Amino acid sequence: MSASLLDKILQPGGLSVVFQPIFEVHAEGRRLHALECLVRGPSGTNIESPDILFEYARRKREASLVDKTSIITVLREASKLCGEPRLSINVHASTLGRDRTFPSFLKETAEACSISLSRLTVEIVEQAPFWDKRTFLSTLDDLRSFDVQIAVDDVGYGQSNYQMILDCRPDYLKIDRYLVSGSHADSYRRAILESIALVAQKFGSGIVAEGVECIPDLDTVLSLGINLIQGFIFCRPLPRSELIASDLLHYDSAPRVLAICGL
Amino acid sequence: MESGIKKPYRILFVDDEESILFAMREYFSIQGYDVDCAQEMEEAEALLAKVCYSLAVVDLQLTGLGGAEGLEIIGYICERYPSVKVILLTAYGGPEIEMEARRRGVGAFLHKPMPLPEVAQTVSELLRDCSL
Best of A48, A55, A66 to disrupt the B interface by mutation (most B CBs within 10 Å)? Predict the structure, then answer.
């Protein structure tokens, strides 16, 4: 039998990284706010898709190991970017709730890659319902003590619910694309977006709309006061070389971004 | 109102032999099916959690160590995804294995080596009543 998928994940070059910009949009223009670092599984396998990759890792009971391997891969790749963009990295709540060594691991890895911890946002993702909440919250406290910011990813989906928001008191809420896509034509979606925007305001959190893919949805989220935008409307996830070639790391105005994206 | 365009059925093949998976993917793709292949139980489970399948073809032994992991997967699929039709394909199974597989919910039991057109015939028969 050939090497298991887990072996393929863990071997050097097993994982790859793409970066998707998050833009801060204002009336006077738009600028890069952060890059979300997205991991892809071994090319040509079922687990190339991140959804299936982490579902597989969870079923192998190796979610924490795969999370850590992903972070090593991501930070090594990000260290080769020009400038010092803010970086969002995905970590499963189950990893934060089971692995007390995670904060020190992240610190050591970031230092080895010459990346300041204050540039990092940990995006908490989770679809599995069980983890040790006490460990989870202690781990978040440790991360905060390192100046790492915390985001709850995919708000409105899976375990990214009000309970998670209340427990985490995140610096950012990232609204799942399911709520954003088609919101311009759906008053119910807009009502939920509005309520999340209000929660973010009350918590003093930033709020990011994910999956913005058309102008009407962009107008909708902006009208609700959500001005951190991530989605294909501005830029698809790009490998490092394409990101650098696109010059997106240095842009500072709406017309330029729109022109780069062919809009 | 029907659009007149039928979506292809999606089939999951679970086998630890790459050559068999390769043959299945090639043959059934040409037949117009959407095909995914998995070599490990956890890989199959992850796919089943994220993708909607009409049918799964499962090999009895996945590790090559003489186990019967296929029965475990069949039980898993039939319990959690009852709309997925299941075929057990094996070189080793006797009547006891077949009985156990049917008890767990398998729709058909095929012996290796089985010519691909005959596997396809069984797949087609099982899917006949399967609505998308």
Answer: A55
Interval A210-242: pLDDT, tens: 999 999 999 999 999 999 999 999 999 999 999
User: Which of A2, A56, A58 shows the shortest C-beta gap to B43?
Assistant: A56
Q: Assess contact for A133 and A168: CB atoms under 8 A.
A: no
SS3 percent helix, strand, coil of chain A, rounded to 5, is 50, 20, 30
**Chain A residues 60-79 within an 8 A CB cutoff of chain B:** 60
Lowest model confidence (mean pLDDT) among A111-120, A198-207, B3-12, B69-78: B3-12
Mean pLDDT of A112-121: 97
Residue in A244, A214, A174 with CA at minimum distance from that of residue A22: A174
Give the mean model confidence (pLDDT) for residues A74-94.
94
CB atoms inside a 10 Å sphere around CB A117: 16
Name the pTM for this structure: 0.82
Question: Does residue B122 sit in helix, strand or coil?
Answer: helix
What is the distance in angstroms between the Cα of A215 and the nearest Cα belonging to chain B?
29
The percentage of residues in chain A with a pLDDT greater than 70, rounded to a whole number, is 90
What is the rounded CA–CA span in Å between residue B54 and residue B114? 21
Tokens read off for B17? 């032999």
Q: For residue B118, give Cα distances in angstroms to A237, B21, B113.
A: 44, 16, 10
Number of CB atoms found within 10 A of residue A71's CB = 24
Weakest-pLDDT range from A89-93, A161-165, B50-54 = A161-165
B-facing residues of A in 159-218 (CB < 8 A) are none
* Cβ–Cβ contact B66 with A under 8 A: no
Cis, bond preceding B113 (omega within 30 deg of 0): yes
